[in-house]
């Protein structure tokens, strides 16, 4: 399978992880859309939210808690958590990931991911 994020997870593509454990990794987006832009990614190759099964409830929860912990580490008072879902939803990489975006100076971060 030719999946960039699987390659990153398997360390076939050098990428610094800001966080990793047995089920998720997090790393900086290569083309940041915000001053702080991390991707939180399950180690399991799940194509997108569209392909979620009931047994994925735990991993989805894990992605959100991981993003929350990273945001707290950066002292972010507000931020965006975004899943792009399918091509029509702007998803380019077909390996589920949660975008953590923040760090804007003004109060309302108005951006499109
Ligand atoms: P999507 O549009 O699929 O939700 O977002 C995929 C994100 O992955 C994009 O923001 C893109 O900049 C990022 N990305 C694509 N390829 C790489 C890569 O090789 N390394 C990193 N760190 N990010 C990537
Ligand atoms: Zn993958």
From TrEMBL:
Any coiled-coil regions, as ranges: none
SUPFAM superfamilies: HIT-like
Motif Histidine triad motif: positions: 95-99
Annotated catalytic residues: 97 (tele-amp-histidine intermediate)
Superkingdom of the organism of origin: Bacteria
HIT domain ranges (all copies): 4-110
GO molecular-function terms, A-Z: catalytic activity
The protein, known as: Histidine triad nucleotide-binding protein
Source organism: Candidatus Wolfebacteria bacterium CG1_02_39_135
